[in-house]
């Protein structure tokens, strides 16, 4: 850590006209962080923001008119709350519109199924796709299957129910099936792709999410089944008789634009040093995007506002970014996503990006602070613990290396990340479903997030702590 404190002689000679830079470990800095934390806990800004966003614009699919209108409104919201240099950064995007979709078992066991088309999968032919299904219980089994076992059939992958976990770690093994599965099935000649929804709930409510393009082209029509319907199909397969399914989708893609919304609270003495507070504006179309990720935008803007309202400006600039087009894949790197667009556009200015964090895991309470490599056990972590432990946030030895989808593209360019880990136990019950609505947000837990962000950000912004200069310490010999 590099602490550039003014010398007593410099102050005595009157060589500097502004107050000395605060050390993140100074008692006065910690005391002010606590003041900001407590004020943030009582704030109504976060709930106001997410209520207006989800009520006024509803779902905000990437590139849709509702996302564009919400971005314009958010820029005005930032200006009205004292943010400066507010701007909208547009970029081209291939949008996707769901249209109508259906799924059903046909034949002797005929019955309707509850399913949702997966994002950026193409439409079926007008009369749908009807074929026998072939079931796989792992992604590796699909990859290993001979083409002849798949050709002309509907591939069905059922990994079983996702386990709810506080850190959401059950998501990765399942979501790779959603992203890559349709491409693998298409390469083997499948006519369509179906999977169990990536979610931890047992509701008859499917989870959508994006698929990936292959060589810049869409693959095959792809769908997610609600958990009870996935169980039903798997039971039918277990009976040993062929199961036929019929799928329809009128999904389409179109050329459009998305955008990042950016607003600053300039630092008092080092405004060129930037701390990024990230979230995303777009959402899936089934709900209203309250937890994913209206809440994230609410948390970050309210945390910055709490600092602005404290009556003291920190040394460094706080930059709130509502990123566009986080939820969808794109056929080429020339379109989407907002995080990559921002990182590319900053150029050499990224050298002055001190650190970045992202709020994109709902609105339930923060339980752990994760810092860049080298900060574990540091004086900064100890100061942060003094501020955050009273509201239930523990210091973690886990290094924050990814940041999140939106801020992540800055990582390879040298920007460190922090993470305020949220309790994700119920997040994947709601994620990407029609249940992602405002009533699922607990205002008290939402404000605990705001308080954790505000207290931590004050410590970073009003100090000269240099996370880039920190190096991991070697483990002690045992």
Automatic annotation (TrEMBL):
Keyword Endoplasmic reticulum: yes
InterPro entries, alphabetized: CPQ, Peptidase_M28
Residue stretches in coiled coil: none
Main location: endoplasmic reticulum
Keywords from the named record: Carboxypeptidase, Endoplasmic reticulum, Glycoprotein, Golgi apparatus, Hydrolase, Lysosome, Metal-binding, Metalloprotease, Protease, Secreted, Signal, Zinc, Zymogen
Peptidase M28 domain sequence ranges: 260-454
Gene Ontology CC entries for this record: extracellular region; lysosome
Signal peptide location: 1-24
Recorded GO MF terms: carboxypeptidase activity; metal ion binding; metallodipeptidase activity
Superkingdom of this protein's organism: Bacteria
Record carries keyword Glycoprotein: yes
Membrane-spanning parts: none
Subcellular location: Endoplasmic reticulum; Golgi apparatus; Lysosome; Secreted
GO biological process terms, semicolon-separated: proteolysis
Subunit structure: Homodimer. The monomeric form is inactive while the homodimer is active.
Protein name, as recorded: Carboxypeptidase Q
Organism: Brevundimonas intermedia
């Amino acid at each position: 850590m590099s602490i550039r404190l003014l010398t007593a002689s410099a102050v005595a000679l009157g060589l500097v006209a502004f107050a000395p830079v605060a050390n993140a470990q100074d008692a006065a800095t910690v005391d002010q962080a606590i003041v900001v934390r407590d004020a943030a806990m009582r704030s109504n800004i976060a709930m106001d923001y997410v209520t207006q966003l989800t009520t006024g614009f509803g779902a905000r699919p990437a590139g849709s008119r509702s996302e564009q209108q919400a971005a314009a409104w958010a820029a005005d919201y930032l200006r009205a709350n004292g943010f400066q240099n507010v701007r909208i950064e547009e970029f081209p995007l291939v949008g996707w519109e769901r249209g109508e979709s259906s799924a059903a078992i046909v034949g002797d066991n005929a019955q309707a199924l509850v399913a949702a088309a997966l994002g950026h999968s193409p439409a079926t032919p007008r009369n749908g796709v009807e074929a026998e299904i072939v079931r796989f219980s792992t992604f590796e089994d699909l990859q290993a299957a001979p083409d002849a076992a798949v050709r002309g059939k509907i591939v069905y992958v059922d990994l079983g129910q996702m386990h709810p976990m506080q850190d959401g770690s059950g998501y990765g093994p399942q979501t790779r099936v959603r992203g890559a599965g349709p491409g693998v099935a298409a390469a083997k000649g499948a006519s369509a792709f179906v999977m169990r929804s990536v979610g931890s709930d047992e509701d008859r409510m499917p989870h959508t999410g994006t698929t990936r393009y292959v060589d810049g082209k869409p693959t095959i029509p792809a769908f997610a089944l609600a958990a009870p319907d996935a169980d039903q199909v798997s039971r039918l397969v277990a009976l040993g008789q062929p199961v036929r399914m019929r799928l329809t989708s009128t999904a389409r893609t179109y050329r459009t634009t998305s955008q990042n919304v950016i607003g600053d609270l300039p630092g008092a003495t080092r405004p060129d040093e930037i701390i990024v507070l990230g979230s995303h504006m777009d959402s899936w179309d089934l709900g209203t995007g309250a937890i994913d990720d209206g809440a994230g935008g609410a948390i970050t803007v309210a945390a910055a506002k709490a600092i602005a309202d404290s009556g003291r400006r920190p040394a460094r600039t706080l930059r709130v970014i509502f990123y566009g087009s986080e939820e969808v894949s794109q056929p080429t790197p020339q379109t989407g996503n907002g995080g990559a667009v921002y990182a590319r556009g900053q150029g050499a200015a990224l050298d002055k990006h001190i650190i970045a964090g992202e709020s994109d895991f709902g609105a339930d309470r923060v339980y752990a602070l994760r810092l860049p490599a080298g900060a574990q056990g540091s004086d900064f972590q100890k100061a942060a613990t003094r501020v955050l432990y009273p509201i239930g946030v523990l210091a973690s030895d886990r290094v924050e290396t990814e940041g999140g989808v939106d801020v992540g593209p800055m990582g390879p360019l040298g920007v460190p990340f922090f993470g305020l880990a949220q309790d994700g136990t119920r997040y994947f019950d709601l994620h990407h479903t029609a249940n992602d609505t405002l009533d699922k947000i607990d205002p008290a837990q939402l404000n605990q997030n705001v308080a954790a962000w505000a207290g931590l950000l004050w410590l970073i912004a009003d100090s000269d702590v240099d996370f880039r200069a920190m190096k991991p310490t070697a483990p002690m010999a045992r």
